[in-house]
Amino acid sequence: MPVKKESAAMPGTPAEPMVQIQGIKKTYSEDRSLFAGSAPALTAIDGVSLCIEKGEVFGLVGASGSGKTTLGRLLLKLEEIDAGQIRFQGKDISGLKGAALKDFRRRVQLIPQDPYQSLNPYMSIFDTVAEPLIIHGIRSSEARRQKAAQALDAAGLSPAADFFPSYPHQLSGGQRQRAAIARAMVLSPEFVIADEPTSMLDATISYTIFKLLADLRKTQGVTLLFITHDLAAARFLCDRIAVIYKGQIVESGPSEQVINNPGSDYTRALIKAQPRFSFVEQ
Amino acid sequence: MALLEVENLTIAYKTRRETAIAADRVNFSLERGRSVGIVGESGCGKTTLGMALLRLLPSNGFVKGGRITFDGMDLLGLPDARMQRIRWKRIAMIFQAAMNAWNPVQRIGDQILEAIRTHDPKITKAEAVKQVEQLYELVEIPGDRIFDFPHQYSGGMKQRAIIAMALACSPDLIIADEPTTALDVIVQDQILQKIKAIQKEKNIALIFISHDIGVVAGVCHEIMVMYRGKIVEAGRREEVFEVPVHPYTRALLSSYLTIDGVFEIRDRQAPAPPCTPAEPLSKELCGYVHLCPHASEACRSRPPQWREITPTHKVLCSLCR
Q1: Comparing C-alpha atoms, which of B5, B47, B29, B31 is closest to residue B172?
Q2: Are A47 and A84 in contact, with CB atoms under 8 Å apart?
Q3: Cβ atoms within 10 A of the Cβ of A220, count?
Q4: Which H helix or E strand runs over B25?
């Protein structure tokens, strides 16, 4: 995909992409542990360029070990890139510090993969969802209650007050993932990364979570990066898809086009491996 | 007589508050060389059912009623020592997330050898190694990797090695509980093709447990849909997938995303939102009544009856006639 030229537009104009990635690289260096063996340096992300437009759902599809989660972590600035540039709303994120970094953290949120691990078992659902508000300086407890209730309602946990005192172990897997989504959405972020948000859930529950994400995008106008290994889910949810293999983007384009006319062998292999309802005996 | 016959099997768990029924009057039979898939959401009782067949229920679980007949033997009545000889030798199981079950400090080959030699004490080590080599050929792992440690294998290889171990004693029946759930699609597809091919080649009976109907559709001859402890629909896969009758089966199928879009049911109706309700399982009434878009007064007052759609396709629903 052609990387958009740096536009002269002012921040906030619709022409500006949400995220622009240019030629980024991430290498995990040689094993530094006590038992350092012969483990060579591993290039997890090898020259990736992408552009995610404001308001779209962008799918990043790849198998385990392809680097898709690493790319998400780099975008969240949980890890630093070795080369290239990531621009969020036109600004390079590499130098962010202090207040600017905190502001970035408010605007960009993560929905983690495994709701069985990502929620603190010692915190009630209210505390979990309200914690980001405390961190970002919402002092009034009434305001926090209100915002947390809105976020839970929007995530399909309603009436929210019923869920406030619950602990994660009292919720089903799907409800936990909804709580994690509420936590991500409570600060009204502009860009959300959902890293395999349903890989731990049943097919029936996954479907309801996908619908929720599609709803949130519509009602709250949030831009989504959806990381998955499931092309069927990506097609359901995403406007555009990029297929990542061994740290490189092998193909990208509108979802329908990538799935109907795959241009790379790897994408074809992915499509072929999808479960299908065909009853022909092989 | 079929290889495995399960009649009116009811399994329960004792908890502090109550005795919870996890599987309620389950009936099915399975011939050699055939495969049956048990599909349902988490908590519906499908894993419990698989565990009960091997008599491996957790300590608070017990069989409340019914019979399991395997190759003419009443499994529930066998003394423990005899049951132990059946486990793995005649009925093997691929456990959920089994690839994480390898002992990390022991070489994989040694772990498979242990299984072989435990069940066949007379075999020499050289013969057993030869067997492992053949198994590795079958699951397509290079023979020089046999004595690697688990961390040297990829996820897919570990899972294939687990399948090799399940086949080690040439069982008549394999119970595979979500054998591919932790793997990505490409590896999943390879493993499923492998399981299918081996099942056919060795004429093994297979019980395949999964929440993923797409996966089950690809592997099994017959399908049983399970919901809250009850089998609600059973039939040949073409029947269940082409003419799903039970409202739950229909909801399950309509929420399944395929690469070509959402699964299309002929004469489709609006699916009910699937979710697991918190209410306790009513023993007699239909478990799906509170979510079913078509539930009638009869559904709320009378237990559902089994109806035959075809001689091989039946459904537990009052609405269907």
Answers
A1: B31
A2: yes
A3: 13
A4: strand B19-30
Contacts of A160 (CB under 8 A, 6+ apart): A148, A149, A150, A152, A153
- A210 to chain B: which residues are within 8 Å by CB? 257
ipTM of the complex, rounded to two decimals: 0.70
Contacts 24+ apart (CB under 8 A), A115-120: A115/A168, A115/A173, A115/A176, A115/A177, A115/A179, A115/A180, A115/A200, A116/A168, A116/A173, A116/A176, A116/A200, A118/A180, A119/A168, A119/A176, A119/A179, A119/A180, A120/A168
Tokens coding B208? 């395949």
Separation CA B248–CA B213 (nearest Å) = 13
Query: Which pTM does this prediction carry?
Result: 0.81
Q: What is the pLDDT of residues A236-281, one digit of tens each?
A: 999 999 999 999 999 999 999 999 999 999 999 988 888 876 554 4
- The pLDDT tens digits of the residues spanning A67-118 come to 888 999 999 999 999 999 999 999 999 989 999 999 999 999 999 988 888 9
**A229 — contact with chain B (CB < 8 Å)?**
yes
Tokens in use for B94?
């691929």
Q: 3-state DSSP call for residue B93? A: strand
Cβ neighbourhood burial of A152 (10 Å; 0-12, 13-18, 19+): buried
Q: Which residues in chain B are closer than 8 Å to A202, comparing Cβ atoms? A: 41-42, 211
Task: Centre a 10 Å sphere on the Cβ of residue B283 and count the other Cβ atoms it contains.
Answer: 11
The three-point CA angle B1-B7-B10 to 5° equals 155
The first and second tokens of residue B88, run together, are: 């793995």
Beta strands (DSSP E) in chain A are 19-28, 42-52, 57-61, 83-88, 91-92, 108-111, 191-195, 223-228, 240-245, 248-254
Q: Give yes or no for B221 touching A (CB within 8 A).
A: no
Our CA-based measurement puts residue B150 at a distance from the nearest CA of chain A, in whole angstroms, of 17
Measured CA to CA, the distance from residue B261 to residue A202 in angstroms comes to 18
Sign, Cα dihedral of B20, B24, B25, B26: negative
Q: Could A203 and B211 be called an inter-chain contact, meaning their C-beta atoms sit closer than 8 Å?
A: yes
